[in-house]
Amino acid sequence: MQLRKEMGRWTPRLSAELGLLAVLLTCCCAQENPCFAVRAGTCSECLQAWKDCAYCPEESFKGPRCDLYENIIAHGCSAAAALTAKSSMMIERKQPINMRLKQSQVSPQQVSMSLLPGEEKEVDVEVFAPTKGPLDLYILMDFSNSMVDDLNNLKRMGTQLASLVKDLSDDYTIGFGKFVDKVVEPQTDMRPSKLKEPWPNSDPPFSFQNVIKLTSDAAFFDSELQKEKISGNLDAPEGGFDAILQAAVCGDKIGWRDNSTHLLVFSTESSFHYEGDGVNVLSGILARNDEGCHLDAAGKYTKDTQQDYPSIPTLVRLLGKHNIIPIFAVTDHSYTYYEKLREYFPIAEIGRLQEDSSNILTLMRVAFESIRRKMSIRAEDKPKAFVTNFLDTSGRVVEHGAFDFKPGAIGNFKMRLSAQQMVGGKPVCQLEPLGKKGSIRVKPTTFNAAANVDATILCPSCECEKSAIPAAAKCHGHGDLVCGRCQCYDGWLSTFCNCSESSAAQDTSRCLGPDMKDPCSGRGDCLECGTCVCYNPDQFEGEYCQYDKTDCQRYGGFLCNDRGSCIRGRCACNEGWAGNACECPNSNATCLDSKGGVCNGRGECVCGRCKCPESDMSMTSTCAPNFEAQLGVCEGTRSCVQCQAWKTGEKKDKTQCDKCPFKIVLVDELKEEKDVAHSCSFRDEEDDCTYRYNVEDWKPDSKVKELQFQVLKKKDCPPASLLWLLPLLLFLLLLLALLLLCCWKYCACCKTCFQSCLALLPCCKGGRMVGFKEDEYMFRQSLLTSDHLDTPMVRTGPPKGTDVVRWKVTDNVHRSPTHPQVLMKPNPKEIIPFPISLRLNRLFSENLSRPDSRDAEQLRKEVADNLNEVYKQIPGAQKVQKTLFRKQKNAGKRQDFAIMDTVLSAPRSSYPDIVKLTQKNVQSGNLHDLKVVPGYYTVATDREAAGAIEFQEGVGSVDVHVPLFVKDEDDDKKQLQVEATDVPLGIAEIGKRFVNITIIKEHATGVFSFLQPAYTYSRGDGVAHIPISKEIIEEGSSQVTYRTRDITAKDKKDYVAMEGDLTFGPEETQKIVPVRLLELSEKDGLLADKQVRQFAIDLSNPRQGAKLGRYPRTTVTIADEPDPSVMMFKKGSQNFSTTDPTYTIPVVRTRNQDIPATVKWRTKKAQRFELSDLLKFSPGETEKNIVIDPRAHPGPIQPETIQLELFDPSVNATVGERKTTLVNVADGPHYKPLEMEQVQNKSAVKGGRLFSPTNLKAKATGPRNIRLNWDAGSGNPAGYKVKYWIYGDPEKDAQVLDVKSPQAELTDLYPYCDYEMRVCSYNALGDGSDTDIVTCQTLEDAPGEPGRLAFNVISPTVTQVSWGEPAETNGNITAYEVIYTPIDDDLKAVGAAKKVKIDNPKKRMLLIENLQRAQTYQYKVRAMNSIGWGPFKDASINLASQPTRPMSIPIIPDVPIVDAEAGDEYDGYLMYSNEVLRTPTGSKTPSVSGDDYTSNGKWDQNFLFPGGSATRNLSSSSSPMSTVGSNYRGAGGSFTETNTTYMSGGSQRTDMIRGGMHSSEVIMRKRSENRSYMDENIRDSIVMGDVSGNFPDLSGFGYAGTQSSSQSQFSYSLSGGPRARTESTDVNDALYNLDRVLYDARLSPGIPDTPSRLVFSALGPTALKVSWQEPRCDRDLQGYCVLYQLLNGGKMNTVNVTNPAENSVIIQDLLPNQSYLFKVKAKSQEGWGPEREGVITIESAVDPKSPLSPMPGSPFTLSTPSAPGPLVFTALSPDSLQLSWEKPRKPNGDILGYVVTCEQLHGGGDVRSFEVNGDTAETSLTVPNLTENIPYKFKVQARTTQGFGPEREGIITIESQDGSSLSQYNSQSMSSREVFQMPTEVSTRMNVSHTMMDPYFSDGAMMTTQHMETSGMVTRQVTKEVVQRSVMGGTTVTKKMFYES
Asked: Are 254 and 317 in contact (CB under 8 A)?
């Protein structure tokens, strides 16, 4: 009893924790250990859990007994004791295939195997089909009257048919059957005369009859066939399915043989009836088909009128069961029916019959040859515990029918049999015997022979369970010892049964280990008898949970160096590793030097590293002298050589010389340079002689492991000077000096010449020196505040004269020539920025420091114009940008002059040319017309720079502005070297030539960051809790400072500012900063436009080794409380009569309708009842009714007035102005209140306020006209006011028409648009009451021109044309017509025009093939509705002139395809690339219910054609491509559903989004429409190119999202309106898109096409699987080639695939977070085909100490970089526009802002740049000062933490057709074609059109877009800043329009 109480105490907590653990384990992406679930179970349960589970029965074992084998061994179980299970497989009968036997054979014949749960086994299978094996051919023919000529032809060909079968097989039979349809109405004419003879000379109607049983007697077959006559029926579809089923199941009566191939030829020209198509309901036939044989003695089907037709899944199953292969021989009329039907059979063929079946023999021969090459492998009678897959010889899983085995040859494949672990949620070993064991027949579909596999699930049991030790001593006599574990008797507990169920069992002291304070170490629950159950068994272990599996030693931040497991507090290292943290490899591979030795023979290899002997010389990691640290071997050893050999030099002091780490050897002769490692020579300053020496490396077999220094004994000294020449030289020099002095007086320019000449004098040359002031700089990267360093260069000597010094800087000089980054050469064609600095010949002013000032703008334009003119001679150079101005200190007398910094983009290889060109122009003092100061310039790249500085007279120090090239990929310690190269002008010599700059990266112990960049809190929350996280890299405490900062929110007004320091302990990872939020003041609460209030929190000053991470700043948005819903009665009073059954009182809700709200109501002053209740509004509901039943209450119903009141609304709602309403109940149906009567009489007599007119009616009289009529009512009105407005707009925007009579004609309306209207009368006292609102829709009109025209260039001869729906549909679009015509340069036709009509209005795309190369075509598109055709939209394009893109755009599915070389008119129409099936009765193509008809391998019974059962739910996406939808709510209650189209490098089916093309349409909804919300699950796709519908799942690495929207949800409240969707429309949309047929552009014969898809699957952070689809090719493929390289350049890697059957490769050793360009191409004997390209990045976390090393175990994902979203242009005026865009979907890093450039498309003007800061979902920019009728090109580029992303480009023109300026005060109407066209006459129109070209979204495509509203009903959102209208002269003036969605 006590135990049960205690169990009740801890069981809930333990259950909750174990449940949480189970959830975490289930959600974890890492591999799950299946053995963990049965750790507490028996030994047998352990071995039955999973194939790799093992059990340890040792008594002394303390670890988990059930675990993976390697785990229990690591925990101390001996290998001999560990229990495991092993399965078996045996081939019991394997007779080799005898190719001489003419029958189908399979080998092996009998296999038996047992499999453990989760185990797989493979069997190699051989199959053989003889060239002419036994053949049974059964012909099933349609005998309806339309087949009379076909039957006559078949009779004439009877002998030839028999001959054909003889040719196909030496052992054949042939039979014949006929069918018509069920003999019942409505299929058959049931009049007696027609039942006897439906047509002249015909047989009575029948369903099916077996006429000729399969026979080998050809003559008998021919004679019987001649006796047959035709029959007939009524409807077009026939009952062929009944005939097929009977022919399949009546094997004996048909005559099928066991060992033959069974072929059934089904010949017809009509479609088919099928189960549930509805026609049998009319006949009263409701029973399903029983799948039985029902043929009488005459072979006739007897149950045709008693049961339904079979379904398609039934036919597929039964034909497969009986090994029957159908061949559909059908005519053109029904070909598309059966083409789709064929797809559902594993093997089937279809042929196109001539109208008279004259080609049936040829058709049968071709079909049979095709069938013989195909085999579909099946696994029959498979138990539910097994899963089968079939693989080709390369190990690739093959779908049904994909094996292509040749008759007469042996075919090979593999069968993989897998045992499931769980079935139906329970272990497989718990299944019933039939589910675990069975005989599986593996056979081709056409074979009777099979490989029989006897498969059994092995459920092992442990022998030790049978030999339990009762009352074992180890169990203290209170339990049995079973398999090493005690099983306690009742009343005893604990591991060893040494604890009884008593109060002592609750003593928690038993859970305390040595030196422990908390039971179970505080990490678990202490159960009875001292048993510890750890909270997290995956982290804690041990008897007392004292061991933490994450608490072992770490190396490099990784637990056990990620090379072992943490077990019981110590690292258990993997094989090949040792050490306390598994940090030491057992091999010495990491200590090998370049010569293959270990540590260069100088040191020893300890723990994988070389331990070098102590030395003053720097050593490398392999103990080689590191002279690179001393500027080379020669430079590093010269001083020691000089002092030892000659006792001279800087180390000539003996104490210094003795410290040298090597000794020299003096020799008489040195070896040649090629024979030694280094050859050195230097000049001895003391005697001006040159000494030479060689440095040799030691030999591997040498005993001395030191460098050998051999010094030449003899120095090279200059010869003695010729003293006799000295007087002559002195004389000449004096003469020269005299001449120069004379020239000085006459030519000022000679001064410089004189100085130059002085430099030739030995006495003057050494008098002036220039050089760097410092030797070395060292910086920490985290402390750098600039990307440049001003390092001083000094000049000594005479200060007179000018010296110009040229310098250069080189990055990463510390890297050796073999460094991987050095070996990775950059792409010379890569466009990179070149920062350029020049000193202008003008003084600097403060205005120039402000980029937006007028002075800066003018100077920037002048600089750009001149520099662009100079640098245009550089090939590939672009225009300069980002020009800024600054002043440089310490620049001598020039420091007040302005320095210009700009950026020139050009190919990397042009760096030398840019330097030379800059140097040349600066020396001349002019860059075109721009004056510059000679002697100063800087040109830089991302890794080197060059420049010059000038020393003016009297200047001794000038700063050199050195770029530091700081990049994320820099080494932990990098070095730059700045070198003064020469003095081109002046007499100075270079002294200190070099300065070294070292930049050190700091490795933080922790990283501080906010969890996200932004938070939103409501003022009602009171406090904003902002978390700050710390990522622990190394354990230790650290601090960081935080501080709030105002943005739009103000301290002490909106929130209370906070600042301080946070201290994190060694194991703390998160702290919370609470920020108090203040209530909105009364003043701010009354403001109409409430500004969004935001403040920021910044992190700074990380201390104790920490640094800032990804989000050092977060923005907090303070959201005000939402406006409450307002609920009130709809009317102030309602009138009812005593005869009304109920009183219905409406209550309406306004504002904030998307939240639930409630309000109470009650009655007052009611005579018979007092009622009250609660009224609930759901989200989206705007009106509810209070219904009162007067008969439900006692007493008679009498006239009375009842008051209803609303009260007590919910907290998010309020009651409006109509809080109460009066309910007037009167006698009789025509009650008028007495008070009203009196007022009405008074108004009629005395001219009081008028009542509303009555009987208001509206009728549309045309597309733009509505006629209104009403009754005047009582009184004497002076006139009437008619108010009308567009449905959905607010009434305040209504237009008013004043009329004098009770009728009105509304004109200038929008066609096919809903309007609301009401009328009031007026007199001298004012307006009377309004009538109720009436609605009316204008009639349809011809549609406007289609929207944007886009061209997707597939190849030079193939294009895909797409267009937008007309902005003015003016009705329901029913079709489109496309006309394309070849034209010349004068736009005149040079060939015949071709027309294509597209009947489906949703197909707004067309693929045109076989266009003429390099020919310009004009394309025209127009739309049609019920009124007729609208105007054309036209465009011209030459495909050959369009640029190619990195990724090709594949053919998008479900696109009409036409052939440009086909016939005229509509004959050029070929097919849809995703053929649709339509209704059988009205079309030649059938219709089905959706894309997929199988679910988990089973057929969906909803396979349905139109006209079927109305009870089945049909749902399909109406768009042919995947749809990304969003719902927006606009003003006035109107709703707009907007879907956006993006183009990418891929295509997909309706139900699969694989990342390329997202397309849909825009639907404008009425206010009365039901709103539907769609769940979208759209992930990034990594599929480039075409995506096959049959492409297998990528096992989690390719992402797929599904979306379906039921169109039947969209219903309108206006009954009978032309826009209401019918059920047939919904069904047609739902029964759309079975599959798609991709029709690629063909290349030259024999050359392979482009691989039609490219799929990337991440296998790890550095490994990638690249797959592609086999391209089309007329010849056999010979292989593939895969090329890849880093996107930013580098070595191109090549992988050749010689096996054409392989279509995937695995690429290893990629760099994480680096973008790669992949290319795949195919090869045939004719050559290589075109490439398919794709760009991909594997994103993963990396080791902070090594950015190119991924973190072990970290998640990884695939991504592609992207540009900002589509550019949207909105015209604001003739010279300004607003540009907006969306943020990139996949930016390369965190977005800091955007750079926008604007320039004239055709040149001229200046390039303008704008910088936009911030990272928001949508960004906009207003661009002023544009010019009308000039096309501009805009580019938007994201600036991220990783640099600049790809550009989005758009071209825009603001046109004015009459050339006049646009005015808002004239009487003309203007409209922007981005919105819609006004219905009035337009004489001046502003057109905004733009072209978007994006390398990532529309590869190879040019898209011209015009943004328009799309719907027959124009719906607009009207706000005070969006649309402003005024009525002037009957014309509407639109100032500014756009819609927000």
From this structure: no
* Cβ contacts of 1449 within 8 Å, gap of 6 or more: 1352, 1353, 1354, 1360, 1543, 1545, 1898, 1899, 1900, 1901
Q: Which residues pair with 456 in a beta bridge?
A: 114, 437
- Residue labelled with tokens 């109940």: 1225
Look at 427 and 402; give whichever has higher pLDDT.
427
Contact 207, 304 (CB under 8 A): yes
pLDDT at position 835 is 93
Give the 3-state secondary structure of residue 1192: helix
Mark residue 389 as left, alpha or beta (left: phi above 0; alpha: psi -120 to 50; beta: remaining).
beta
Q: Which of 916, 576, 954 is nearest to 768 (CA)?
A: 954
The answer, yes or no, to whether residue 1804 has pLDDT greater than 50, is yes
Q: Are 690 and 683 in contact (CB under 8 A)?
A: yes
Q: For residue 1307, what are its two tokens? A: 């004109």
Q: How far apart are CA 908 and CA 930, in angstroms?
A: 26
pLDDT category at 19 given cuts 50, 70, 90 is very low
How far is residue 1001's CA from residue 496's CA, in Å, rounded to a whole number?
58
Span 1018-1034, mean pLDDT? 86
At 1673, is the pLDDT very low, low, confident or very high (cuts 50, 70, 90)?
confident
Tokens 């977060």 identify what position? 1114
For range 1150-1159, the mean pLDDT = 85
| pLDDT digits 0-9 by tens, 824-842 | 788 888 888 999 999 898 8
The verdict on whether omega for the bond into residue 1450 sits within 30 degrees of 0, i.e. cis, is no
Average pLDDT of the residues of the chain: 75
CB atoms inside a 10 Å sphere around CB 233: 25
pLDDT at 1820: 85
Q: What is the CA radius of gyration of the chain?
A: 45
Residue 171 buriedness (CB in 10 A; 0-12 / 13-18 / 19+): middle
Q: Which among 78, 80, 82, 86 has a CA at the least distance from the CA of 67?
A: 82
Query: Can you read off the two tokens belonging to residue 1370?
Result: 């003016």
Beta bridge mates, 1903: 1350, 1892
Q: Which residue, among 139, 140, 232, has the nearest Cα to 180 in the 3D structure?
A: 232
By three-state DSSP, how is residue 958 classified? strand
Q: What is the DSSP string of 812-838?
A: -TTS-TT-HHHHSPPPTT-EEEEEEEE
Minimum mean pLDDT range among 80-89, 347-356, 498-507, 724-733 = 498-507
Q: Which of 1158, 1153, 1155 is nearest to 1175 (CA)?
A: 1158
Could you tell me the two tokens for 782? 């985290």
Please give the angle made by the CA atoms of 255, 256 and 258, to the nearest 5 degrees.
Answer: 130
Quick check: helix, strand or coil at residue 860?
A: helix
State residue 110's pLDDT score: 92
Name the helix (H) or strand (E) containing 759: none
Task: Specify which of 534-543, 850-859, 1371-1380, 1523-1532 reaches the highest per-range mean pLDDT.
Answer: 1371-1380
pLDDT tens for each residue of 267-312: 998 888 888 776 766 677 878 899 999 999 999 999 988 898 998 8
Residue type, 772: F
pTM across the whole model: 0.35
State the Cα–Cα distance between residues 1598 and 1266, nearest whole angstrom.
56
Q: How far apart are CA 1928 and CA 1869, in angstroms?
A: 10
> What element of type H or E holds 1654?
strand 1653-1658
Q: Among 1368-1377, 1576-1585, 1806-1815, which stretch is predicted with the lowest mean pLDDT?
A: 1576-1585
3-class secondary structure for 11-63?
Answer: HHHHHHHHHHHHHHHHHCCCCCCHHHHHCCCCHHHHHCCCCCEEECCCCCCCC
Tell how strand 1023-1032 and strand 1070-1076 pair up: antiparallel
